[in-house]
Amino acid sequence: MTKNDLNSVRNCRVCDAPIEAFMSFGQQPIANGFLTSAQVADEYFYEMKPAFCARCCMFQIMDQPAAERMFHGEYAFFSSTSRYMQAHFAKFAKEAMETVLAGRADPFVVELGSNDGIMLGNFKEKGFRHLGVEPSSNVADVARAKGINSISEFFSPALAERIVAQHGHADFMSAANVMCHIPDINGIAAGVKTLLKPDGVFMFEDPYLGAMVEKTSYDQIYDEHVFIFSALSVQNVFARHGLELVDVAPQITHGGSMRYTISPKGARPVSDCVAKQLAWERGQGLDNPATCDRFRANCEASRDQLLTLLEKLRQEGKRVVGYGATSKSTTVTNYCGIGPQHVEFISDTTPIKQGKLSPGAHIPVKPYAAFADNYPDYALLFAWNHAAEIREKETSFTAAGGKWIVYVPKVGIES
After folding, report:
1. Residues near 15 by Cβ (< 8 Å), separated by ≥ 6?
2. pTM above 0.90, yes or no
3. Could you confirm whether domain 291-414 is CATH 3.40.50.300?
């Protein structure tokens, strides 16, 4: 390991207050680092330790692998593989067009972490000037092939200035499941302030701390997710840069997310929803480190229950197959000690993952046909945040007697 392989902090990334880890998820690999058997010997690991800043209420991991290890030319996540997410982003874009962009002359739209263009494609179809900022070149190439303007760089204040020089200021900026990936959150906020028009709007959504704590969905924590946001922490971050949290809207995506609307301070009225959300969060203890201690105990109980269940099924000779080789599954398998002895293989529809081994646990990843052509006794639902879509698709599996193993919000077996 080299010095640059890990971004480590002992002070809060937002406000610089001293922080300490309240638990450890042990040695974790790159969550999307699906690998061949020849790569196993050189696989990268780091200790994943979450911390909570009592001063600014930011939940964060202490150490994060270098961005180049996570986002690169072989990045294994493509948003458009989910029909549900396609519909979600189409609706997100439509709302932005109606509430932010209506009546504006030749508006300019910028998306951070634009992936394969699943969101920006909606703006392109309507003729909006647009630009996607996507550091992983392979997924950005997919967007470019669709005619979606995309650059493969990490967003920064310097890049914001270059975009302004070339395209002008942005009327609307968006990000979905990407802000939580970026350790220099202050740099991002400063870049947003630079790029936005004085009356511009930035909307982003990410997994929500309140939902994670409530459901013990600890698999929301992995290398890419350096932060898990709350309205409290988002307000604190952006206020440091002359930006204001003006609205919040809960989302069901990714097992519980929140959409935050940010504008230059004083540019737009602040919705009553903001004060209500902040009060609710304080009532739930999302400003209190003691809540993290309870979360740790719940994580440990969930881990022990899941491993006990899988060990029992293994001893009974039952076939268990994983459903969805997700980033989340990397945290679960490595934290719980789940391996090929418990899970025969993981079924996934993403070609770049197929024929490889899961990160750390080294469970084979096979095409969906391997699941559908020979149903197991149990399917371990790693892609639990897409449960409704999956259940709708897999009625034949349950009709054949197959059962689902779930672990969010509780460990159990469902028909």
Report:
1. 53, 55, 56, 58, 236, 240
2. yes
3. no
Beta-bridged to residue 264, according to DSSP, are 243
**Residue 309 near residue 303 (C-beta atoms within 8 A):** no
| 266-320 pLDDT, tens digit each | 999 999 999 999 999 999 999 999 999 999 999 999 999 999 999 999 999 999 9
d(CA 405, CA 77): 24
**Burial of 414 (C-beta count, 10 Å sphere; 0-12/13-18/19+):** exposed
Report strand pairing: 227-228 vs 320-323. unpaired
Q: What is the dihedral of CA 25, 31, 36, 41, to 10 degrees?
A: -40
Query: Could you give the percent of the chain with pLDDT greater than 70?
Result: 96
Q: Which residue is listed with tokens 């009356």?
A: 199
Confidence of residue 1 (pLDDT cuts 50, 70, 90): very low
- Per-state percent for the chain, helix, strand, coil, to nearest 5: 40, 25, 35
Say if residues 400 and 375 touch (Cβ distance below 8 Å): yes
What DSSP state is assigned to residue 10? S
Query: What is the C-alpha to C-alpha distance for residues 291 and 311, in angstroms, rounded to an integer?
Result: 31
Contact 30, 70 (CB under 8 A): yes
Handedness of CA 100, 212, 29, 305 (dihedral sign): negative
Inform me whether the pLDDT recorded for 56 exceeds 70: yes
pLDDT confidence of residue 3: 41
Residue whose C-alpha is closest to residue 255's, from 114, 389, 366, 379: 389
What is the C-alpha to C-alpha distance for residues 170 and 276, in angstroms, rounded to an integer? 29
- Looking at 32-132, list the stretches that DSSP marks H as alpha helix, in order from N- to C-terminal side: 67-70, 83-96, 120-125
Which whole number is the average pLDDT over 348-352?
A: 91
Q: What is the pLDDT of residues 354-379, one digit of tens each?
A: 999 999 999 999 999 999 999 999 99
Q: What is the DSSP string of 157-210?
A: HHHHHHHHHHH--EEEEEEES-GGG-S-HHHHHHHHHHHEEEEEEEEEEEEBHH
Residues forming CATH 3.40.50.720 domain(s) in the chain: 291-414
Q: Give the per-residue pLDDT at 140.
A: 85
| Residue 29 near residue 330, CB atoms below 8 Å | yes
CATH number (3.40.50.300, 3.40.50.2000, 3.30.420.40, 3.40.50.150) of 79-275 reads 3.40.50.150
pLDDT band at 77 (very low <50, low <70, confident <90, very high): low
DSSP label at residue 269: P
